[in-house]
Structure formats: C-alpha cells, structure tokens
Amino acid sequence: MKVPFTIEQFLQVIKDYNLSVWPMQYIFYFLGILAMYFSFRKSTYSDKLINISLALLWLWTGIVYHLGFFTTINKAAYAFGILTIIQGIIFLYSCMFKTKLSYKFQPDVYGWVGATLILYSLVIYPLIGHYSSHSYPYAPTFGLPCPTTIFTLGMILLIDKRVSLWILAIPLLWSIIGTSAALNFGIREDAGLLISGVTALVLIVYRNRKLNPLSISK
Questions:
Q1: For residues 45-64, b (16+ Cβ closer than 10 Å) or e, as one string?
Q2: Residue 143 Rama label (left phi>0; alpha psi -120 to 50; beta)
C-alpha cells in the first residue's frame, strides 16, 4: 500500500512527538509493566487497573499522536485517531461500569504467546529500533500505535474468558495498516505487527470455539 508521505516526513513527526511529550514515555512503560504485573498477580482491583492502563494508552495514541501530530502529514490520521479513541473507550467502559475483561496469565499456549508479544512490545521492539537507522528520538516509542497494538494483542490473549471479536477488531485493523511502515520505510520492528495480529486472531477464535457457551461473559 502506497503511503501519502515520505520516510523523512514520518520520522520527523516521530521526533517532534518524542521531544514534545518527554518524559511521558517513562509513564507509558510504567503503565505497561503495571498491566503485565497484575496479569500475573491477581487482586481485587487488578482487572480495573489493567483496563485503565490500556484505556490511557489508546486514548493518548488517538488524541495526542494521531490528532495532534500525525494529521500534519496524513489526513487519514483523523480517522485513525477516532478509531483509537473508540478502543480506549472500550477499555474504559469495561473498567467503569462492569469488569467484563478479566486478565490472568496461564501457563498455556495463550499465556506464553501473550507474554511473548508483551515482551516484544516493551523490550525487543525498542531494541530493534535502537540498532536500526532510526534510534531515539526517531524511534516509535511505547505509547505510539504500533508497539501499543502489539502490547494490547498480548494482553488480550491473557483474558481468561471468551473474547468478543469486537474488542480485537481495532488492534487487528491497525496491525494491518501499520505494517505498511515496515514494508515501505524499513521500520523493522513493525514487522511483528501483522504476525501479532494474525497469531492473536487465530488463537482467540480457536479458544472461543473451545469454551462452553455457558461460560461466556455477556
């Protein structure tokens, strides 16, 4: 898919974003680690804290990055911003009204693949960027769409009940859209996007079919 901007324009937007919002990147890493921790250490409020963390990441991505920065080089970012804001609202709704999304690491294929995607987004993704030709401040940091999408897909795999596909729809869509950066601009770390999306979709559909319909959370 041909993109309506150059690699130089794209990396300049990333640089402008990173320098403008610093040190928010550290806060987002804290939110990611917090969410991961509470998926291993269940408590009364763990699901709410995880959903709040995911909501903040997606709302920030939509409002600040897409609408505040990415629209300067790509008008489609207005649509991207709306979609990511909707995803943030989905997590926020689950937290504020009724905790429908419950996260718990299980030592099975879903848990290990989910943990791998989380590790990729938090550790491997920035390392690949660091050793590529677009190290910080030109690197997409955690809290931006692509690493946030991979992280979210990993967290969704840790949900311990049947997962409605509408929760997965927007992250899956972005895993397809964001792959264009890897193909067109050589953003090597984004190569994990489509793999993450396809893997999460296959595993979640398979698990949903295995679950007893009586255990489905409405």
A1: ebbbbbbbbbbbbbbbbbeb
A2: left
CA 216, CA 106: separation in Å to the nearest integer?
Answer: 18
- Residue 217's pLDDT band (boundaries 50, 70, 90)? very low
Place of tokens 């990611």: 32
SS3 118: helix
Q: How many residues does the chain have?
A: 218
Report whether pLDDT(85) > 70. yes
**Mean pLDDT (the chain, rounded):** 90
**Mutual orientation of helices 145-157 and 165-177 as an angle, nearest 10°?**
150
**Domain ranges, ordered by start, for the chain:** 7-215
- Which of 121, 97, 101 has its CA nearest to residue 193? 121
Distances (CA, A) of 102 to 137, 162, 167, 174: 35, 10, 13, 23
Cα 110 from Cα 122, distance rounded (Å): 18
The pLDDT value recorded for residue 216 is 39
pLDDT score of 212: 62
